[in-house]
Amino acid sequence: MVAAGAHLALPVILANGKAAVRHYSIASNPARRDIYEIAVLHEAQGAGGSGFVHGAYQIGTVIHCDLPKQYFSLRDGSKAALLIAGGIGITAIKPMAQRLKAQGTAFQLHYAASNRQHMAYGDRLRRDLGEQVLCYFSDQGQRLDLETLLTNTARDTDIYVCGPTRMLEQVQSIAARLGFAKDRVHVEAFGVAPKANDRAFRVTLHRSQKTIEVAADQSVLQVLDAANIPAASACGTGQCGTCAVKLLAGAADHRDQVLSEAQKEGMFCPCVSRAADSHITLDL
């Protein structure tokens, strides 16, 4: 049995011909023992990972991958839970709803999608959860009002959010302002969106005695990989901490979801974080 929030790391070939690994939430009911179900949104303008899954993975394909990993877990003993999903982020939230229902924990699921056609698991969720799931479709002028939703949520509720970076940041900001304890808000990004003010910067690699240039639209990890400089990594979205390295000099713009405030003083996640100024030095 796999716990809600688990991931599979699947091998893919990107559009540039390079082998890579992509992480997908296991969306099957945690009570099932016979399948690992994933849902992959085909992003035609992406790097090619989703296209490879859609084109190369067929019935009968044998896939060699690691056992599931857990970066986004339900908290034990929660009195109540608020689940928020944006788009394909429902893949991580759906099994949480099923697990909470099975164990009798009070919860609501709020699911925002662009339209009904892009609503993964819509019929299944409405059938299984009834009035516990509320849906919002932007093409119908419907909007998930996070401010009102969180204002009306008890402060001892655990909040779980998966979706676009902007949604995660809004929930964290509103929750902090309303007085929710930081450890009550659990987030998972299915991608890390660039910011309009992102700019290029330099990274000195202390052990390698090299300096690399990171463009405004690149991550440090991408540049390390392109330069064939060894660096540990796993989730690629700042959730697991596998890639964290020592920050030896310079100020960081931390964008991960895993390092504590104390750890951020001397650590850096190159998969998502950037330099706050023009230069940083890492222990690589």
UniProtKB/TrEMBL annotation:
User: Coiled coil: which residue ranges?
Assistant: none
Cofactor entry: FMN
- What does the UniProt keyword field contain? 2Fe-2S, Flavoprotein, FMN, Iron, Iron-sulfur, Metal-binding, Oxidoreductase
Protein name as it appears in the record: Oxidoreductase
- SUPFAM superfamilies documented for this protein: 2Fe-2S ferredoxin-like (SSF54292), Ferredoxin reductase-like, C-terminal NADP-linked domain (SSF52343), Riboflavin synthase domain-like (SSF63380)
Which InterPro entries does the UniProt entry name for this protein? 2Fe-2S_ferredoxin-like_sf (IPR036010), 2Fe-2S_ferredoxin-type (IPR001041), 2Fe2S_fd_BS (IPR006058), Benzoxazolinone_Detox_Enz (IPR052353), Beta-grasp_dom_sf (IPR012675), DmmA-like_N (IPR054582), FNR_nucleotide-bd (IPR039261), Riboflavin_synthase-like_b-brl (IPR017938)
The organism's place on the tree of life at top rank? Bacteria
